[in-house]
Recover the amino acids of this structure.
């Protein structure tokens, strides 16, 4: 859940100083973005993968710190709950077969982590929400003992002034209250990073916002929570509600810290950083000693630690990232994709997202008047709820009123156009064509990770009690996932 912090308690002076530092950081970023030399260079692809740890009975196993210490791998980091881990992949240049190389990194990492976890009769695998998770598996006793998580939990709970309400309707319903934020840790994702030049940020970011509902619909992999059949991508409402620190205010509702954005980006990345500073109160006011203007005057990229920390506590589903590495650059972090079902599926989802965005990037100035941003937000939630059957508003430059189409029909029309788009971006044809075939097959079979879980669970419930059916389904999922077989090819039994 972001940068590490060294402390858990803060004074009002800490918050005042932090806000001042944020102002300086914003000004520094504005100056950097105006520099013609900032953020240039070849496009690169990176990713982060969150994992569940389970025991021999398929239940959450709280040993993330033990595994991390045993492996001593700097790319392996701790997540909010002790039964989750995150692996951070080494970025790869787009032109260097980035999908295949990242896939191999993932397979190698999974094998190493699983070999280590065997010491505790455990294993890891990628899935959006663990089907066998129970409410009793959560709480402060399973939260990872790190200052950042203690501070984050304490401050969000203090701002909220009461329990966090979870109310999600699907085929079944969950309605409960949590005294802490550990239910957020039920969500695991595959977060994709794409390096982007400042001058192309706005159109590409807006295009990613527009196409994300399509990718969400075909990549959904989180249909079950506590045995209840909810949304196809239950992570979306669960993440938002589990850390929603807003107090009810019908007259002046504030934007949630987990949200899809407030508007189309009109000028560039600075708008999103400024919103994160001005619309959301700081939660972790840890200040650096760096003077960014002095650093910039020496021709170096400043850390902008306060701004990066603030951005790490505003969870946009598609988020801008400033990174001081390599002279400083911008990335777009695509946070909507679930973990799983297989590594190959996740690479295919990433290729689809990037290809679709590139397809529409040059048309965004013409398309945006045809689809108010609120419509795009509704598309996102519809896709998360209904998957491929979701009816989405899709724009065209010639339409006079909103037009609804199924996510599946839009994808079927656009998918054949993507090879050219990816090739023009510098991606290698032999690298991305097999991944687009994974998407085509998934679309043809109408079998996403979410749909497979729901169908397999329904079959098993005919002969097994619900808890046993969940476990059997999860075990079959884990078996197929670790074989790296695309979900469209998974059998139902």
């Amino acid at each position: 859940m972001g940068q590490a912090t060294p402390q858990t308690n803060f004074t009002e002076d800490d918050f005042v100083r932090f806000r001042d530092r944020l102002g300086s950081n914003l000004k520094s970023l504005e100056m950097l973005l105006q520099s013609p030399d900032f953020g240039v260079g070849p496009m690169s692809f990176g990713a982060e993968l969150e994992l569940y740890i389970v025991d021999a009975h398929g239940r959450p196993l709280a040993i993330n710190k033990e595994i991390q210490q045993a492996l001593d791998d700097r790319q392996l980091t701790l997540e909010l709950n002790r039964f989750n881990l995150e692996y951070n992949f080494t970025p790869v240049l787009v032109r260097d077969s980035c999908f295949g190389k990242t896939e191999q990194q993932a397979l190698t990492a999974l094998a190493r982590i699983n070999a280590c976890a065997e010491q505790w009769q455990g294993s890891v695998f990628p899935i959006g929400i663990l089907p066998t998770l129970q409410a009793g598996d959560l709480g402060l006793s399973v939260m990872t003992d790190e200052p950042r998580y203690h501070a984050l939990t304490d401050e969000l709970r203090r701002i909220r002034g009461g329990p966090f309400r979870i109310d999600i309707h699907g085929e079944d319903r969950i309605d409960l209250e949590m005294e802490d934020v550990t239910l957020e840790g039920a969500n695991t994702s595959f977060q994709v990073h794409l390096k982007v030049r400042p001058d192309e940020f706005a159109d590409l970011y807006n295009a990613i916002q527009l196409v994300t509902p399509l990718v969400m619909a075909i990549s959904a992999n989180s249909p079950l929570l506590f045995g209840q059949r909810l949304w196809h991508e239950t992570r979306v409402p669960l993440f938002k509600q589990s850390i929603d620190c807003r107090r009810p205010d019908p007259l002046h509702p504030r934007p949630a810290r987990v949200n899809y954005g407030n508007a189309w980006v009109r000028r560039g990345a600075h708008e999103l950083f400024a919103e994160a500073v001005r619309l959301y109160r700081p939660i972790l006011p840890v200040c650096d000693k760096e003077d960014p203007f002095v650093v910039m005057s020496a021709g170096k990229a400043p850390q902008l630690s306060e701004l990066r920390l603030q951005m790490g506590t505003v969870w946009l589903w598609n988020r801008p990232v400033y990174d001081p590495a390599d002279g400083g650059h911008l990335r777009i972090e695509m946070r909507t994709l679930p973990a799983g079902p297989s590594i190959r599926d996740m690479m295919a989802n990433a290729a689809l997202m990037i290809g679709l965005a590139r397809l529409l990037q040059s048309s965004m100035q013409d398309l945006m008047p045809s689809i108010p941003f609120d419509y795009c937000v509704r598309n996102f939630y519809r896709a998360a709820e209904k998957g491929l059957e979701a009816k989405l508003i899709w724009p065209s430059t010639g339409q006079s009123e909103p037009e609804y189409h199924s996510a599946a029909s839009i994808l079927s029309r656009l998918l054949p156009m993507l090879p050219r788009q990816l090739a023009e971006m510098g991606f290698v044809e032999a690298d991305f064509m097999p991944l687009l075939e994974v998407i085509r097959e998934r679309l043809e079979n109408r079998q996403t990770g979410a749909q497979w879980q729901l169908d397999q669970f329904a079959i098993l419930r005919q002969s097994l009690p619900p808890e046993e059916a969940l476990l059997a389904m999860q075990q079959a999922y884990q078996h197929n996932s670790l074989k790296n077989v695309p979900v469209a090819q998974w059998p139902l039994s």
In short: The chain has a mean pLDDT of 95. The domain at 12-362+409-489 is CATH 3.30.590.20 (Creatine Kinase; Chain A, domain 2).
